[in-house]
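Model it.
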Amino acid sequence: MSKYEDRPPRHSETSLTTPQQQAILALLREPSVAAAAASAGVGERTLHRWMRLEHFDEAYRLARREAFVQAIGLTQRSSAAAVATLLRIMHDPKATWSSRVSAATNVLKFARESIELDDLAERLVKLERASAERDRCMGQS
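Modeled.
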């Protein structure tokens, strides 16, 4: 609801203006609020004021989440190439021993963590099934 409880929120209180949309993009791309304000062509105080608005904050939070999801997707798509690079270094006789050991350590760590995550996922599925079964049994009593 708006600051005036007896009226519905104004359009400007629920949707973003073009400068506000540009400010959100700048906040995602720039290293500081000051740099984002300059990049978006608005004053720093204005940007700070916008950041306190509920609809602006929500849109900014959603934009950050989407950017993070895209970054995760990029790292997942790059993981096979990263492992291949580590394996090349690990087997390269011209690479320093420290590089080869570091590559081998990272490959082993990745493999171990993958197994641990797989085991945790399996345990979670079993717990969820057991919980659902228990709930069904209790519901029939």
